[in-house]
Each structure stands twice: as structure tokens, then as C-alpha cells.
Amino acid sequence: MIPAKFDYVRPSTVEEAVSALQQGGEDAKVLAGGQSLLPVLRLRLAAPSLVVDLGGLAELRQIGEDGDMIAIGAMAAHHDVMRNELVQRHVALLGQATETVADRQVRHRGTLGGALAHADPAGDLGPVALALDAEFVIAGSGGSRTVPASEFFVDYFTTAIGENEILTQVRFPKYTGWGSHYEKFNRTAQAWSMVAVAAALKIDGGTISEARVGLANMSSTPVRATGVEQALVGQAATADAVRAAAEHATEGTDAPSDADAAADYREHLARVLTGRAVLAAAG
Amino acid sequence: MTTTAEPTARELGRARIRKEDARLITGRTRWTDNITLNGMLHIAMVRSPVAHARITGINVDAAKQLTGVVAVYSGTDLDAEQSAIPCAWPINAEATPPRHVSIAVDTVRFAGEIVAVVVARDAATAKDATELVEVDYDDLPPVLDMEEALGDATVIHPDFGSNKWVTFPFDSVAAGATTGPTADEAIAAAEADPDSIVVKRRWRQQRLIPAFMEPRSVVVDPTGEQLTMWSSTQVPHVLRTMLGVSLGLPEHKLRVIAPDVGGGFGGKLQVTPEEILSTLVARRMAKPVKWTETRSESMLSGHHGRDQIQDVTVAAKRDGTVTALKIELTADMGAYFGLFTPAVPVFGAFIGPAIYKFPSYAFVCTDVFTNKTPTDAYRGAGRPEATFAVERIMEELATELGRDPLELREQNWIKNTEFPFTNAGGLTYDSGNYEAATEKATALFDYAGLRREQEERRRSNDPVQLGIGVSVFTEMCGLAPSRLLGALGAGAGGWEHAAIRMLPTGKVEVVTGSSAHGQGHETAWSQIVADRLGVPFEDVEVLHGDTQVSPKGMDTYGSRSLPVGGTAVVKCADRVIEKATKVAAHLLEAAEGDIEFQAGRFSVKGTDKGVSIQEVVFATFLSHNFPEGIEPSLDSEYTFDPENFSFPHGTHLAAMEVDTETGRVSIRKYVCVDDVGSVVNPLIVEGQVHGGLAQGIAQALFEEANYDEQGTLVNGTFVDYTLPSAADLPSFTTDRTETPATSNPLGVKGVGEAGTIASTPAIVNGVLDAIRHLGVKQVEMPCTAQRVWRAIQDAQGGAK
Amino acid sequence: MAQVRVTVDGVEYADDVEPRMLLVYYLRERLGKTGTVVGCDTSNCGACTVHLNGRSVKSCSVLAVQADGGEVLTIEGLARDGELHPVQKAFNECHALQCGYCTPGMIMAAVDLLGDNPDPDEQEVREGIEGNLCRCTGYQNIVRAVQSAAKAMQPGAERPAEAPAPVAGGN
């Protein structure tokens, strides 16, 4: 199927992009990798008047170290994120979750920033960003601002990015030496997660000293499983301790019921998969 | 005259790599949507978003005003010409099927029904204009549930007066297939007999979508003497005749071409509204037109498959001997009939007794209209449903009796010494050897070892439980003896046609009425002809799928091509040899009776005198000194009508793992040993089995077309229909036994549907076998993780 | 209209296109590269897979204008100098296709996978082509073909005996 007509610009600087969005008004859409947007346009579920393609902004593809953060340009393709050495060394959980995004072709085009800005609650990267306290750098006409992950995800497909703003960079603190695991549960390999759990642990002398756990598709936004994290800290990573902590997985969630799974099944899965993710993260 | 190579020693049974691949792996393909003609216009359909409504108004003005739009038609514009979509097999001789319009006129009866046709210069503009067509609907109550449809629900076709089309009964005693008590009598007797057992179950065959990979596409060129239609269809010949009959067009003024066709699985065994409307528009415009569907359009409006409620009853002695089988079906027709809609469930009637010696058998099918997309043939068409019913109930019987499921089956199946055997459905199975296939399968599977592991996992309360699913099936292929089709009221015969043209240089053109869309006929038919005529495989070209090239045929479906179409090719080749023998006798100056033909050479018995078939062909081309009475042509035709169906069978074993914590099901091991008779090309046969398995497994585990309460298809895209990918399926262990069919000279039985028919019950039996000890009695298809988990929860809750 | 300059199968093209034109329709309708096909509208089936700047992409989920300045390789440009690519040969030899509709995308996906992982195990192949749907083969022979091509592409590998189908038709 063919999208409805739209105008198209491919700015070469962030400033140009922001000003194009401003001029385009309400009906302007940002095109990053296009792997979510283009199917939506093809099905004519959206018909923007203007598409602002960020594909010309080479600087937004950079992945680098910035002090004690790993800074990833919003336009970095999934494939490049998961293969990046800095990511693998310092933000392994992000790499692991990114490897499960859709399929090879989609990972070649799709971008970290695009996926996070799309904010599908079933998306793989939201719970990672949330659990790992990522920061979102957002550019607007007045310059850039930084939003913590805890404030970034607002609702279904809604983030803190304003109407005429562009997500330019996502910054992750380093979790060097942490154990991590992304546990995804879906109907078929290609399907979105019914539930997924992102877990990272710091283990000192056999005891969990810090824990980060995020959940996908358990609410209208990704959810941070703080109850689980608190219950894990100070525990040895034994099956029993982890299972007990995982019982807290549904705290603060508001699991949806849909054709894929009813809420009670999602809640059950969240507990089981949290246990599995944490145990796998503990090695 | 040239020959490129010596004929190969043995063509039949050889794993030839396929000829047709050369174009398919290089992109040199001829899909219908590739076709571009000068002045070609593009069609897009406006489809009803509602399931059941009166159309109170259509405004096409805005659409017509869009630049690039050539015409917009509503139902009233086209109604006088559109006639009706044909139903070739209504089953019910008493009534006229409700008119199946291509474009709705005053009422829509399923979401997806066409309500307006847009014609534009390009496809994008046509699509844009569809969004400008305004249709006013006055909603009627959607009738979605079959049982409600049979109750006091709104009548979908007021002219017909009922949502029940027909009840089709089969009784083995009435049909003369068995003597003694009827199934009802035998079941009643068993219920009263403490030494007998009766097991009754109800299952659902969910609604499925064929999901061929190539979306349907139609190009119609009305210029020239014959109106030419290219269509992504399985049935160019049927389509030509039906177009003629339905639209009142002279058949000789129609040419239908099925170029490369990207899969069908029954889904392209149809005469579609889009084909009719494209024809009407092309005639009005006097210009070529093209319609190509999107995937979501395909899922919504192409016919669906299955969708039955099955009530199955088996009666048996406590020693395991079965005494009666009764299958009661309620089958969802959807809103209208397609080509075979009412016949599909009935097709299972005769094969219901399957491999077993049921002394009495009854089948009854009630065909019901609902406000959903019409159903029709989908891979297996009637036989997967029947096989599921019988293989699931045999499993339930084994469970109730505490017997090993394979052992109970063997106790009741037809022994290899008992063929030919007439089953309680009245079919005569010519051959079979269930013992041999089962022995091979159990050995490959390590049946005993897996049973031990299953015990161990149960004992240790392993969170991942193991189940073994069994399905020992037979089916009927080789559609079909024309006299049987006639007796059942079908509107067509079951023959197939072939022609062979011997070209002057010794090359051969084989024209077949079978219409391949992935089955590899070009390769297999070349092997058959190379074998029969002793010409090199490379020297044979197989022509098909164009009524101008191949004027006669019944096309490809129901695993009929090789047993029927392949046999026609064999018989046709024999006619070529017969004719060539006369010429050879003349050339060799010998009596015709003294000529022998072997491996491409005619020779005089007892001498070293001989000529090659290529020499005979060339001499015939020259025919310089032919005596009177020898026709200067070796070209031949043959139309073959089978005397019987063919009956592939096999034993399928599935080791299923169920993660009891999440409900996740996975296939640990799948072994099948199929007996499809003699094999022309084992590579192709294996490929058909693999693909068949994937579709049968997809029914068991992944796929279902879901409607909401308004009658909207809610998962009509590839995002949510969850077709399995490579990452969702295992590798299968496949093997064969070869018990030749006796009903055709090749000894072949057909293989296209076997894997699909057998695997669904094997998988479901395996899932249940893994968790039955937890108290689970049933999991509906598809056995998703959520369904399995919930079944375990419910069973455990019930136990508390 | 927007301008697109793109090299496809080694030939450079420049065209004015509507911004909404998808790369796959540009290939099929403007360049006549009908070897690449459309199988769905949700970027699931992968039938339209081509390589853009050396990486596999679904050409139904890329705008033609996004390919501006880029290099596209389609199934039609895969064979070189009349010699089939080892993956094409392996698909033929292993009977990895039936109707052939998914095949161009499947082959392009497999070539991309092998460029990344020259010796994948069965699971890696299955996951590597999870973005391509096939309804005919049950995938088993596709997996076999990809692994067989991997072997054939190892340095010093010998070709199997049976000749593959010829590249050009009408031979």
C-alpha cells in the first residue's frame, strides 16, 4: 500500500530540522529510521502533511564516551548500537535488548532514538532506558534540554518530547562489570513482546549490591520494577531469593488486556520472567 | 536434428533439482503485478468497514473530482452486469444459493465486502480516491456466532429465509457401506453396555487465513479479439469457464493466463469479485486495467478456511475395539458462497473413518451463514478437519481406557493384508501399510526412550513437561473420479488433460492442464516424459497456465496434479510411442509388431537395427515418403479420468515440551513417515511435506482469524496474524515408505496436503499428553502460551 | 516531487519522485526491477528485501528519497558475469523455494546474514532470517541452503557435482 501524499524535507542540521518542524505545524512528523512510521503511513493510520527526515544528520549517528556516560546519537541504527564496543562493555543490557528488536533488516534501518521516541509500551528499549536511568537530550528552538528517563515516558506513544522538538541523543550511565539479561516473551519471533523484562545487577562477593529492573508492556509506558530492585539488594542471587523478589514485579503496573494476553496472565508472566531475567543476569 | 545428452538411466525417483528455479532465484519472474500495458488503468476497492448494514447512500463526487481519477462505480452502477460469483458445488440440490454479488448493492454482509470501485491513472491516486468515497450505512445486527445464527438471529439472506443452508447427512448403513447397526444405534447400545465405553468431545476448528505470499492481482486487457485476463489464480481453466458462464461472455472470446503464481493453498482456488469487477471495468473503459491487493486487503477479503464446531463421538468395547464413530459438524460458510464453500466440510465425510475399521459411522454437517468473510478451500479442505476429529477422539479413547495411543490405533486399523478395503465412508482404499510407516516412525522417533523421559519429568515435577503426540492418518487425493463428483452434485468433472508436441529437432513440449504455483510441475512432468520417451530431461519444456497454450484443464488443488495430471502425461506419452512405432516400423522396414521401444530407441526384435525417437520425430517432420495411413505427426493428447481417489497415509509423532510456568509450547522433535506411493522426485516430495507440516503446525500453535463483537477482523495483518517464521519452527525428520497406488500407472498418491492434514492433531495430542497428568483435558487451537497456562491454572484450581 | 539519485545493481539513475514513493515501488515501477516484490504492508514478510549501502533493508519501509545518494543491490544484480551467487545456487540445489515469491527477499537476507556471520549454526540462520516469511517450504530447506552456501563460500570450497539451473532463460 502507498502512503497518502506528504511534503518532505531532509535538513542537514538539527536547527534546520527544528525550524522545519515549527513551520510544518501540528501535522509534521519526524522520520528517523522509519521502521515504525512507514508501516503506519502505508496503512494510512496517519497522514502527516510534512515529513522531516533526520537521515541527513550524520552527527546524530555517533556513539561515544562522554565522561562517565555513554552518549548515543538518536539516529544510531540498532545494528550499530548492539555491535558497538562501548555499548557492549558499559551498557550490555542495551545491546542485549537491541538484538531482540524485530529482525535484521529492521535493525539496519531502525534507530535507538526513533524507537524510544515512538514509545510503544511493548517496545524493547524503553524498559532498558528506564531501568538504567538514561538521559534524553532534546533539542528545540531554545536549544537543548535533558530529561531523565523517569520523566521521559508519559503515556501510550507519548513522551516528554515537545511538539517542535527533536530527540538528539540518549545518554546511559556506565554499568561496567554488571550482569544483565533481557528476557522477552512473544507469540512468534517477529511479534511484539507480550511482556519483557530487562534486568541488570551488580554483584559484590556473591551479594546483589545494586539492581535495575524494567518491564515492557505492563502499563501504558515502560515500568521500573523498583519493588523488585529493593527486594534484591542485599540478597544472594539464589533461586529462592530471586523468586521471592520477583513477586514484587507487578507493583506499580497496570497491565493491559488485549488479544495477545489478559492482564492476569501478563502479571503472572512478569513475575516468572523477572525471576528468569534476574537469575540469568546473575550468571 | 540435435540431441543434447544421452537420456539418463532412471528419471522417476530421481532427486532432480528444479528447472523452474532458474527464473525464481534471479528475479526474472512473471508475477501478475509485474505486468504493465500501454494505457493501463488502476483499480482500487472501497470496502465496507462494517459487517452487516444497509447501504443508505454513496457519494462518489469528491472521489471523481480528484485529478487522475477516471471513474468511480457503486453497486447500482454495475449491478445489471455483475451477475453472481459462481458456486460449483452447492451440496443442497433443493435450493438456489443466495446471490453472491461482487459489489454490494443495498446490503453489506461482511466487513471487507466491496462497495465501490475506483479507477485511476495510477495505483496511488486510486487509493487516495477510495478515502474520498462516502458511504452511509444503516447498521443491522451482525450475526457472528454459528449457534446463534441457527437460533433466532437476524436472517442474513432474507430471500433465502434462513441462516442454515443445509444439513448434509451421511450414514454408513443407509449408504450401504456397512451392515449392522447404525452409528446412533451402536452408540446407544454402548452407552447401555458396561463392557463398552462412549467418549464424546467438542472441538473448534478455528478460522484460518491461507496467507499465500503473493497477494492476488488481476490484469484485464479488453483490446484484441479475445479478452485476456492475467490472474494470480490456481485455476485459470475453471476461471475462464466460470467467467464465461457468470458474465454471459462467449468462452472462446476469453483467454485466462496464470503466469508465475506465488502460492495458493486453496486460497486462489476461487473466482473472485475482483476478477469479475476488473473485467467489467476493462470492458467499460476499453482499456487494460490492473487490480493488486494489499496484504491487509487480502487477509480481510480473500476467502478464509476451516471454522467448524466439531462434536465427535466414539463408541468402543472396553478391550479397545471401536464400534462406532459419529462426527457432527457445524460449519461457518461466512456471508456468501465461493466456488466450493458448502462442499469443503462435506469433503471430510467420506474420509472420517480414516484408517480404522469402524463397523458403523455417521457424519452430519450443518452449513451456516454468518456475517464474516466467506470460507472455502484451505490446504486439505475438509480432510484436516476430519482427521483432527478422528485422531483426537482416538487419543481421548486411549486416555479413557489407559492404553498406549499407538497400540490402540493399531488394534483398530486396517492391516496391510486387508487391502483393498472399503471404509465405513464408502471409499475403497486400494493400498496401504500403516504397520510399516509406524514401525519406521517409532524407530526414528525413539518412542520408547521419549516415553521414559516423559515419566522421569513427571516424577521429578520438572517445570518443562514432555508430551508425545500421535497422528496416524490417511487422506483422499487425486480429485477425482468424475462419476463420484457427479453423484455428489458437483458442477465439474475430475479429469485432467495433457498434450505432447514432438518438435522437429527432437525437443518436446508438454502441455498440461495442471496449473502449478510452486509445486514443481515443470520439473516433475519433464522427468515423467523423459522417462517414458527416453529423451533427455533438459529437452522437455512444460507449458501450463494459459488457456491459449493449454486450452483444456481442471487445474491444481486437492493434491490432484500428479495422480491425475501426471497420469494424463504418461498416457499421452504412450500415445506418442504408439504413433512413433508405426513410423519406426516404416523406417526400419519391419512389421509394427516386431518393433520394440526402450530408452528412447525403436528397434527390430532380434536384430541390431534401430532408430532413435529423435530420428523418428525428424522423419515424421519430413514425411517425405510416408505410405498412406501414417499420420505425419506424433503429437498426442490424453484426458485422464481417475477410477478412484488415491490414499496417502503416514505416521506422525511429535515430542512437545510445555513450560508449565509460562504455558509456552515448543516442538522438541517431529518425526513423520509418509507413504505417498511411488515418488517421481523425492526432493520435491520432501519439500511438500515440510511446507505442509509448517501449515498444520501453524493451525495447532499460532494462527487464528479473530473477529470482535462488531464483526471486524481484528488481526488481519502480518503483524498480528502471527504466521510462523524460521525462528518459530524446528527441523523435521521426514522419511517415507512406498506402497504404490494401484489406481494409476505411476503408483503415485499425491503429497501436497499430507503434512498439513496429519500434523495438527499430532501437535495438539502432544501438548495435551504433556499436561494431562496436571488435570488438563482440553486446550483450544491455537495452543498459545496463554491458553495452555490458563488450562493448567483451571485444572489445578479445580483440583483444590 | 523530490529528486533521487541512486545506483541500482551497478547502474546510476536520477529521477523525480513523489516523496511518498516507497523504494520498492521505485524499483519495480520506475526502473522495471520487478524481481523485487511486495508481500505485505507492515514490513513483516521481507519479500522486498534489498541491500541499501551494503545492508539488508525492507524496501517497502524505505522511501525512495531516503535512498538518495545510496547504492542498492537487488536480486537482479546478485549474479555476476553470468555466474550465480553461491546463495542462489544453494537455494536451487537444496530445493529452498517452491512458489518463489519470498525467494528474492530470502536470498538477499541470507547473503546479508552470511556477510555478517560466515558460518552460522542452524539457530543463527533461523534467527537471521526471521524477518522473512515463507509459506511454502517450512523453512527447513532454506536453512539448509544458507548453511550449504556458507560452506561453498569458505575459501577453497569445491562446488557440488550437479550443475545448477542456468542463469538466463530460453536456453
From TrEMBL, chain A:
SUPFAM superfamilies: CO dehydrogenase flavoprotein C-terminal domain-like, FAD-binding/transporter-associated domain-like. Residues 1-177 form the FAD-binding PCMH-type domain. PANTHER family: XANTHINE DEHYDROGENASE SUBUNIT C-RELATED. InterPro entries: CO_DH_flav_C, CO_DH_flav_C_dom_sf, Diverse_Substr_Oxidored, FAD-bd_PCMH, FAD-bd_PCMH-like_sf, FAD-bd_PCMH_sub1, FAD-bd_PCMH_sub2, Mopterin_DH_FAD-bd. Keywords: FAD, Flavoprotein, Oxidoreductase. It holds the Pfam family FAD_binding_5. SMART domains: CO_deh_flav_C. Gene3D superfamilies: 3.30.465.10, CO dehydrogenase flavoprotein, C-terminal domain, Uridine Diphospho-n-acetylenolpyruvylglucosamine Reductase, domain 2. GO terms for molecular function: FAD binding; oxidoreductase activity. This is Carbon-monoxide dehydrogenase medium subunit. The keyword Flavoprotein applies. It comes from the Bacteria.
TrEMBL record, chain B:
GO terms for molecular function: iron ion binding; oxidoreductase activity. Residues 26-141 form the Aldehyde oxidase/xanthine dehydrogenase a/b hammerhead domain. Keywords: Molybdenum, Oxidoreductase. It holds the Pfam family Ald_Xan_dh_C. InterPro entries: Ald_Oxase/Xan_DH_a/b (IPR000674), Ald_Oxase/Xan_DH_a/b_sf (IPR036856), Ald_Oxase/xanthine_DH-like (IPR016208), AldOxase/xan_DH_MoCoBD1 (IPR008274), AldOxase/xan_DH_MoCoBD2 (IPR046867), AldOxase/xan_DH_Mopterin-bd_sf (IPR037165). SUPFAM superfamilies: CO dehydrogenase molybdoprotein N-domain-like (SSF54665), Molybdenum cofactor-binding domain (SSF56003). The keyword Kinase does not apply. Its cofactor is Mo-molybdopterin cytosine dinucleotide. PANTHER family: ALDEHYDE OXIDASE 1-RELATED, XANTHINE DEHYDROGENASE. This is Carbon-monoxide dehydrogenase large subunit. It comes from Pseudonocardia asaccharolytica DSM 44247 = NBRC 16224.
TrEMBL record, chain C:
It comes from Pseudonocardia asaccharolytica DSM 44247 = NBRC 16224. The keyword Cell cycle does not apply. It comes from the Bacteria. Residues 2-78 form the 2Fe-2S ferredoxin-type domain. GO terms for molecular function: 2 iron, 2 sulfur cluster binding; metal ion binding; oxidoreductase activity. The gene is coxS. The keyword Oxidoreductase applies. This is Carbon-monoxide dehydrogenase small subunit. Transmembrane segments: none annotated. SUPFAM superfamilies: 2Fe-2S ferredoxin-like, CO dehydrogenase ISP C-domain like. PANTHER family: OXIDOREDUCTASE WITH IRON-SULFUR SUBUNIT (PTHR44379). Pathway: Alkaloid degradation; nicotine degradation. Pfam families: Fer2, Fer2_2. Keywords: 2Fe-2S, Iron, Iron-sulfur, Metal-binding, Oxidoreductase. Coiled coil: none annotated. InterPro entries: 2Fe-2S-bd, 2Fe-2S-bd_dom_sf, 2Fe-2S_ferredoxin-like_sf, 2Fe-2S_ferredoxin-type, Beta-grasp_dom_sf, Diverse_Oxidoreductases.
